[in-house]
Amino acid sequence: MRRTVLLSLLAGSACSFVCLAGVAGCGSPAAHLSARRRRTAAPPLPAGALPSGAALPQSLVLQGPIRGEVRSAYATACGVYAGTGFSAVLDLSLPGRVETLRLALPNYGGPGRYSVSRADPVQSASASLQGAYAARSGWVNVAAGGMGGTLSLSLKEAGQTETLAGSWSCSMPAAGHSTSQPPTGPVHSEALIASGAIQAQVDQAVVPGTDLVGGAPNCGVFSGSRFNLAMSLVLAGQPYILRVYVPQYQGQGWYYPALTPADLPVNSSFAAAELSLQGGASQVGRIPGDLWGGVGGDFSVLAGTEGGRMFIRFVNRAGDSLILSGAWSC
Question: I need a labelling partner for 125 at 20 to 30 A (CA). Which of 203, 247, 253, 328 fits?
Answer without folding.
Answer: 247
